[in-house]
Amino acid sequence: MEYLKNFIDGAYHAPVSGQYMDNVNPATGEVYSQIPRSGADDLTMAVNAAERAFPLWSRMSVNERSAILLRLAAGIEVRMDEFVMAESRDNGKPEKLAAHVDIPRAVSNFHFFATAIEHFSSESHYMENVGINFTTRRPIGIVGCISPWNLPLYLFSWKIAPALAAGNCVIAKPSEITPYTASLLGNIANEAGMPAGVLNILHGTGPEIGNEMVSHPKIKAISFTGGTATGQHIARIAAPMFKKLSLELGGKNPTIVFPDVDIKQTVKEIFRSSFSNQGQICLCGSRIFVHQDIYEAFKIAFVDWVSSAKVSYPADPNAQIGAVVSKGHMEKILGYIELAKEEGGRVLTGGVRVHLDAPYHDGFYLAPTVIEGLSNSCRTNQEEIFGPVVTIMPFAEESEVLAMANDTKYGLAASVWTKDLNVAHRMADRLEMGIVWVNSWLIRDLRTPFGGMKDSGVGREGGWEALRFFTEPKNIFIKHE
Ligand code: NDP
Questions:
Q1: Which residues are catalytic, by number?
Q2: For a 10 Å CB count at each end of the chain, is N or C smaller?
Q3: For the segment 290-307, what is each residue's pLDDT rounded down to a tens digit?
Q4: Number of continuous H segments (helices) and E segments (strands) in the chain
Q5: Which one of 252, 278, 282 would you pick to mutate in the ligand 1 pocket, going by the greatest count of ligand atoms within 8 A of its CB?
Q6: Quick check: CB of 177 below 6 Å from ligand 1?
Q7: Is 272 domain-assigned?
Q8: Is the whole model's pTM more than 0.85, yes or no?
């Protein structure tokens, strides 16, 4: 049995308490490694190391920092296969997905911010006959990054890359459910020439080490991605300490299909937006609204496509749906399917656990599920399920679908499917979401602002937004004589 370690001050350390937790492979249901159950003592070591490293790292030239981060990106790239297998084993996702999305994207995150920092600039404001203001943007100090299990290294690197590029020292915690790929980063950081103490990776539970990080007075900013309830808890602790906070939280995203679409083509795209990564992407559309004129035709084609999707073990190159991340999460999703039935929903396809042949018989597989017959206001359509479950509902008018799309506490993302440019512009303008895709889904440009409105979070990540978050502006005024 492998025992993972924390990465502190450039070296791997067992947890001070000596306590570990099980790490389960969702594809088989078996425990395959042990994770440190870190606490306050481990955090103290990491904070001390980060404090020692900060003067060197924050004053290093941008070119040198950039070169180290580029070497880190290259270090992941040369171990692509190892990272792909590790991510898939930890999370249950098809290896094909980890190979095409998760790990290449983690490489891109380091690459993007390593180069972005070389182009990052700050403003100056000239005052005629008076003087000049110029604004510096310096690193904050020690920052905390806390990431979820759905896109483990992808979201972990999306936070630590800009934090490091901006000159901060980082203490980062991956989800306890998917810690493996983050634990591989330590050696790569050392090989890339990153000074000891600049990047520290602690493992353990949210309520233990996560909470310690959020409460620690020397950690000046927290970048968090996870559930809305956890985000509220973090804000309650961090806000009175005046920490900078970036919170990327849950969603209940609408997918809106107008009657002028090519049904066959749109069905394929909406299969992807509904069920990619077993529906465990915060951006997945889980409420599908279809115009009444094409509702029946779309429904038949969609259910046909979904019911033929292959649910299989992650190493199967033909797997379209892998395992969901844990037994507890699988049971939560099955609970929502039961709730949907109680609320009057009809399961058109799926709705059940799938048992594959040994050795995957006890893995956490669910058939992709489509439910109709529910109102937008029921719990199934208001609460985040975060699994391979979507509802489908007809609409008659643009104003009606707009009202339903906006009628949840969330405001993360939407996709709109139409050939009518006026409809597309009107909808995009009026949807209360941080991100709107038209005739597409999850096309990402790392320069764009990423994040949600309402209960989907506070702040934006990506591009300059991330570099602004991880720096402290100071305005300096020089008077003319
Ligand atoms: P959680 O909120 O349960 O956990 C997210 C991270 O926070 C994990 O590392 C977790 O640790 C940690 N954590 C939990 N409790 C605390 C605490 N009290 N203090 C500090 N850290 C804590 O979310 P999930 O991991 O279940 O992820 C799924 C959620 O993430 C969904 O709601 C999804 O919508 C959201 N998400 C949002 C995205 C966005 O960009 N808006 C993108 C991706 C996901 P541990 O796992 O070890 O308990």
A1: 248, 282
A2: C
A3: 999 999 999 999 999 999
A4: 16, 25
A5: 282
A6: yes
A7: yes
A8: yes
